[in-house]
Amino acid sequence: MLKVKGALFQALYPAYQVLHVPAQVAHSVSDYAKSKQSLIDEKKDLEQDLLVLQEKMLTLYFLELENKELKQLLRSNTKKAAQMKAGQIISMMITPFSHYAILNRGSQHKIQEGQPVFNTHGVIGLVEQVGLINAKVILLTDPKMAIPVESTRSGERALAFGTGQPGELEIRHVAMVADLKVGDTLVTSGLGGKFLPGYQVGIITNVNTDHSKKFKSYLVKNQTNSDKSRYVYLLDEQVPTLNIEKVEEAVNESSSSS
Amino acid sequence: MNHPQVVNKLIWLSFFVALALTFIPEPLRAWCPNWMLLWVICWTIICPSKIGLAKVAFAGLLVDLITGSLMGAHVISYVVLAVICFRVRPLFMFYPILQQTLLFAMYGLLNAMTLFWLNSLLVHQPLGWDYWWQVLSFAIFWPLVAAFAKEHIQNNLSRHA
Fold first, then answer.
1. How far is A71 from chain B (nearest CA, A)?
2. What pLDDT does A77 receive?
3. pLDDT tens digits, residue range A71-127?
4. What is the dihedral of CA A169, A173, A177, A179, to 10 degrees?
5. Which of A5-14, A146-155, B32-41 has the lowest mean pLDDT?
6. Cα torsion for B70, B73, B74, B78, to the nearest 10°?
């Protein structure tokens, strides 16, 4: 069944490109019709973003050095820089029942099934099907999708489900004692091995208690604008597993020397 | 319109247009009717001899693949609606336009409900109120189609009914 679906997807690829033309034309017309003022505003915004990012880059550089030294002290493998691949979204389908994007990268560009997809704001989804020169990316907001997350404040772990509404995720059936609050930033926890830990997923904006007063559910605002982004990148790296034996060795050595 | 091949081509063209229209992006999309269903129902009313259930099922399959919804959901919904629509057709023709439009809205509602029901069989499917706007925009199209195809529908009626 999956193979049939894959073959049909492959066969439909030219159709995606042709069918998407009207929507693309509308897009480019609205781009062309942008006023001078809005372009100037946009440029100012981008310049500001650049300044902020450059400042962050400086601190990041020092942190990286520090991290490297600490890792050498722990004798754990230093992580290689992740291989990044860029891609462009050529088509986007958002309905209440499914959210997905078509990428212009496929198995020819060594894209694999199950690879996480990011944009500049964080995780946007997962590669679901790979064709020869295209791939189908299922977005986080798809009702069939779920992503393991943790709160940066408390470290509480949870699963965020897609809701079918653009930009909204939901954490369902959480015990009342769970330490999650409105305003918490959620990042990927890395559990399950699909997503690297530490990428931003969203911010909790709403809490609901169910009728039995035993469980809570949270609404998570996903700020990646995944339904509007055009350029995305894919990481090659798998979730790093901690080499427990090496850590044990290092700990034992340090305790015996002291 | 009386040449069967011309009608056939028109049907395929309309399917293609419907598929292209499903790509309308977000702020507008919530207000769009189910374009393919619109064509399926309209063709069933205007010339049922040219659009068989196989074509209807194929249209449903195309929409399933393009929208990435549960495989076969649109197929079931479209086929059921085409059958109902064909059965009701002889009566439908003699209704005043207002009543026809109401019935058309019912078709849209039935389709929306079937799709929601089938999709929520497998996953928890939260749904906003804006999902139901498509029924309204779907019904609005009938008077327009009726105005264009009035003559043809009457010609066909004398032959088929």
1. 43
2. 55
3. 777 765 555 556 788 888 888 888 888 888 888 888 888 888 888 888 888 888 989
4. -10
5. A5-14
6. 180
Arithmetic mean of pLDDT, A46-69: 87
Residue from A95, A134, A142, A225 to probe the interface with B (highest B Cβ count within 10 Å)? A95
Which of A8, A19, A96 has the CB atom closest to B23's CB atom? A19
Q: ipTM of the predicted structure?
A: 0.80
Q: Tokens in use for B29? A: 């999309």
Q: Would the CB atoms of A20 and B23 count as touching at under 8 Å? A: yes
A177: which 2 tokens?
């004692």
The pLDDT of residue B161 is: 42
Cα angle B90, B87, B132; round to 5:
105
DSSP states along A207-247: EEE-TTSSEEEEEEE--S-TTT--EEEEE-PPPPPP-HHHH
CA distance A236 to A152: 25
Chain A, residues 184-243, CB within 8 A of chain B, namely: 227
C-alpha of A99 from chain center: 14
Best residue of B14, B19, B23 to probe chain A, by most A CBs closer than 10 Å: B23
pTM of the model: 0.79
